Recover the amino acids of this structure.
């Protein structure tokens, strides 16, 4: 027995609530009466994405993608598509495209994501160099070594418009050009794989899924700038990525794709690993170089830039993992191809680690210029548990919090900066109404204070002071003057800190002050946290109408804050209450609530 | 100091010899030391100081700068609870508190039987499984506070 | 293996391209690909992998190649498994525990039917194969 076709009905939350289960029944019914029961299998699936257009039905093997399917549409799909083999055009997302008989590339859902960096992740076996080679791997190095001069390689990078994906967005070609122009001699190529932002794992996944692409890219960069030696600075917390890189380096050396005289071209390049040791500041270029040299990872003032004076005083280019993963594709497909993807100022794609209160957390790659709404609702499947979208956070501890009114802003470096956040390395964290923005700002400050290296005063002292103010506010002791002081400290840190960490550490505070001042004011004036996250601001109350005077809560209260006599309503003394919630949990009559 | 003296292993010695001439070797050597002993013992640090010709003060400076290195031995089972953003939003904080409560130790401390220690770590990169705890390299994802008892029991049984 | 020349590399690419597209040299016409990044392994991909191998051995199926790959990006549904079999649409399954892995062999590969409730979609078009 073999089926001829398969009907996939999306069983994601959004589709189900839109009538997905009825559709499954309808298909079973219609197929039975059309006599196709043995030939067509109906299956419910996990979320297929594109949730705003649900319920979604997909027909295999053709891959036709029907949107907003209603129960009464099923009859037509069976009669037209499954019996006669004709696509029901009115149910396609874009009927024009449907006419071309629906190659996958024409389905809108597949166009939301565009995988350049992640092209091999989830496709090849990362521990097999042959798999990588089969998918155009080491083809770019052929082209570079035998058909291009180092100057042409740099020119190609400049033309592509590729900008550093580590966060700051500096043009990669420019970096390479500076290093190339330095006098000949020992130069270094460094890959920054010290992915430190909490909530970000794009680089780890790339290294685990496609390690050879990084080796190839570093070799290309080495050729362009005239370096014979490369280092990958990787977090020790990523044992699997380290293992796969070690395997990959071994294989590449064995085949002569690393080492002396690569492919007989006369160019030699080798790569070594260096482990980070859990210092966030080492994501900063100058601190990272200090760490490779075996020192405490403290940043240095720039200039001199690493491209002029870097590792052991020699010209050094530092590129992030995601930046590098783009490079072989740019060489293979050409700068022009690449520069057509993205926005006016920002070319190519961005990988995001989409996490937090979203249904489909995952690793996604979208063209620059995609909106947050498309990412969170179409790809991410919307907010978990039917909650409301409150804010998104990009850029980790250096980034800002983005409120709902900017959901439709096309994302690139400039647009994000304009609304007070940054692109960052790619963590994209979604929050709902149960998250408190003041608490989130406190979380990030706690992180940066912990990770500040302590070298410069604005970051060391300013960060600590900001954190103290935030603690004061979330404890219910804040004043309006505190807000003014915080704004002044933010400014000072931003202007006077030595490195990127300190300059951006205040961003979570600045952006929340900018968009959620009302919530700060609620904490300060009304001593209230609307999300219920700030436990010290919670007030427990007993509803005298519901309280039966059973004394249970008074006996459970560890602080002796509840008083009352048997069979009479009890009262909580807010001054004594430690907000542990034991009373609410123990009350059988639902008389105790908090807010 | 009353701490136990550790003995340099031949493997470690060989590793140091191999790296001795490479510039910037200190952090790589310290990683190997921690891998061997589970922490950076003072007497070993002294030996390294001589072998690599690096002042002990510098080694101390480096060890204390980086979160990854520890000066005290961890428990046989080191519970690392992730406090990255995704885990924090999904209640990583409560998971830590539950471990502390159930094991009766504070953060970065070891139980008196030497079996468990609890540590808060920055993002482990398993955000899809948030909140996450890692015990000796084994990941436990999508945790709720009620799972903590089971995890402790699982390792206690192994002894 | 000896060091490659340019010609060797090109030859190798061509040969391996065919192999990766389908059929392995050893007559394996079905591929089961398990996502084994950190997240996948943490969610139990190793158990999935073992269960696949065990069930295949039990059934005496020798035409199936089980291999690993990196993260497919579908972190919410780990472990993930892609199944490529002739005469069947290529699909990705999510939340594949040991029992589902058994189902993949018994229902999908042997019985030619899709497994209820576990299918996910490919995240995007392949840029290496398509422009």
């Amino acid at each position: 027995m073999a089926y001829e076709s398969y009907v996939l009905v999306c069983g994601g939350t959004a589709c189900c609530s839109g009538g997905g289960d009825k559709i499954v029944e309808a298909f079973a019914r219609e197929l039975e009466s059309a006599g196709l029961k043995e030939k067509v299998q109906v299956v419910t699936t996990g979320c297929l994405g594109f949730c705003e257009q649900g319920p979604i039905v997909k027909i295999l093997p053709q891959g036709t993608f029907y949107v907003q399917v209603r129960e009464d549409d099923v009859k037509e799909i069976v009669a037209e598509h499954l019996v006669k083999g004709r696509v029901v055009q009115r149910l396609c997302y874009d009927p024009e495209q449907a006419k071309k008989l629906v190659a996958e590339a024409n389905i809108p859902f597949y166009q939301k994501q565009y995988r350049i960096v992640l092209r091999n992740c989830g496709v090849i076996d990362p521990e097999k160099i042959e798999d990588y080679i089969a998918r155009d791997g080491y083809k770019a190095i052929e082209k570079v070594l035998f058909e291009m001069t180092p100057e042409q390689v740099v020119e190609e990078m400049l033309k592509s418009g590729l900008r550093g994906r580590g966060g700051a967005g500096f043009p990669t070609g420019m970096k390479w050009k500076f290093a190339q122009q330095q006098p000949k001699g020992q130069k270094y190529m460094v890959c920054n794989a010290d992915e430190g932002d909490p909530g970000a794992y794009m680089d780890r996944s790339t290294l685990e899924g496609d390690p050879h692409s990084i080796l190839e890219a570093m070799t290309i960069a080495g050729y362009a700038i005239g370096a014979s030696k490369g280092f990958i600075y990787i977090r020790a917390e990523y044992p699997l990525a380290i293992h796969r890189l070690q395997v990959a380096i071994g294989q590449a050396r064995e085949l002569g794709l690393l080492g002396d005289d690569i492919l007989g071209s006369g160019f030699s390049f080798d790569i070594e690993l260096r482990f980070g040791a859990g210092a966030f500041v080492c994501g900063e270029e100058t601190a990272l170089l200090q760490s490779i040299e075996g020192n405490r990872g403290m940043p240095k003032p720039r200039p001199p830039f690493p491209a002029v004076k870097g590792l052991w005083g020699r010209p050094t280019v530092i590129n992030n993992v995601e930046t590098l993963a783009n490079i072989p594709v740019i060489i293979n497909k050409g700068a022009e191809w690449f520069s057509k993807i993205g926005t006016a100022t920002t070319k190519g794609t961005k990988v995001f680690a989409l996490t937090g209160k979203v249904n489909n957390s995952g690793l996604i790659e979208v063209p620059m210029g995609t909106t947050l709404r498309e990412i969170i609702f179409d790809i991410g499947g919307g907010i978990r548990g039917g909650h409301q979208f409150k804010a998104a956070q990009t850029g980790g501890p250096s980034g800002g919090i983005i409120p709902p009114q900017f959901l439709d802003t096309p994302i690139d470096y400039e647009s994000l900066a304009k609304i007070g956040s940054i692109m960052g390395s790619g963590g994209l964290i979604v929050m709902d109404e149960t998250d408190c923005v003041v608490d989130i700002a406190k979380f990030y400050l706690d992180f940066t204070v912990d990770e500040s290296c302590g070298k410069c005063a604005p970051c060391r002292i300013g960060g600590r002071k900001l954190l103290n103010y935030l603690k004061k506010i979330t404890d219910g002791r804040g004043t309006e003057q505190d807000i003014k002081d915080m704004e002044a400290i933010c400014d000072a840190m931003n202007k006077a800190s030595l490195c990127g960490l300190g300059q951006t550490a205040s961003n979570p505070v600045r952006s929340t002050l900018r968009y959620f001042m009302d919530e700060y004011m609620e904490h300060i004036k009304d001593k209230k946290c609307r999300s219920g996250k700030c436990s010290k601001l919670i007030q427990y109350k007993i509803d005298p109408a519901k309280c039966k005077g059973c004394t249970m809560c008074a006996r459970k209260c560890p602080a002796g804050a509840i008083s009352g006599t048997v069979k009479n309503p009890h009262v909580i003394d807010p001054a004594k209450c430690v907000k542990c919630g034991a009373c609410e949990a123990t009350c059988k009559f639902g008389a105790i609530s908090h807010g | 100091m009353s701490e136990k003296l550790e003995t340099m292993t031949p493997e470690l010695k060989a590793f140091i010899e191999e790296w001795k001439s490479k510039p910037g070797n200190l952090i790589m050597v310290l990683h190997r030391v921690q891998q061997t002993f589970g922490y950076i013992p003072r007497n070993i640090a002294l030996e390294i100081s001589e072998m690599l010709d690096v002042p002990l003060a510098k080694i101390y400076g480096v060890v204390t700068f980086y979160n990854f290195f520890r000066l005290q031995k961890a428990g046989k089972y080191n519970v690392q609870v992730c406090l990255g953003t995704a885990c924090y939003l999904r209640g990583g904080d409560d998971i830590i508190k539950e471990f502390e409560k159930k094991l009766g130790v504070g953060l970065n401390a070891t139980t008196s039987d030497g079996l468990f220690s609890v540590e808060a770590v920055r993002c482990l990169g398993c955000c899809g499984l948030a909140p996450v705890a890692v015990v000796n390299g084994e990941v436990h994802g999508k945790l709720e506070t009620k799972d903590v008892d089971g995890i402790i029991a699982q390792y206690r049984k192994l002894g | 293996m000896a060091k490659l020349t340019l010609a060797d590399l090109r030859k190798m690419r061509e040969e391996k391209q065919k192999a990766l597209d389908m059929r392995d040299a050893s007559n394996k016409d079905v591929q089961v690909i398990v996502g084994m990044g950190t997240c996948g392994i943490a969610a139990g991909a190793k158990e999935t992998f073992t269960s696949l191998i065990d069930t295949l051995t039990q059934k005496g199926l020798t035409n199936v190649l089980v291999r690993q790959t990196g993260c497919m990006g579908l972190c919410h549904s780990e472990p993930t498994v892609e199944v490529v079999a002739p005469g069947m649409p290529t699909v990705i399954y999510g939340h594949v525990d040991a029992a589902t892995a058994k189902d993949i062999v018994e229902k999908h590969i042997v019985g030619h039917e899709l497994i209820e409730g576990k299918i996910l979609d490919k995240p995007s078009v392949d840029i290496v194969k398509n422009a």
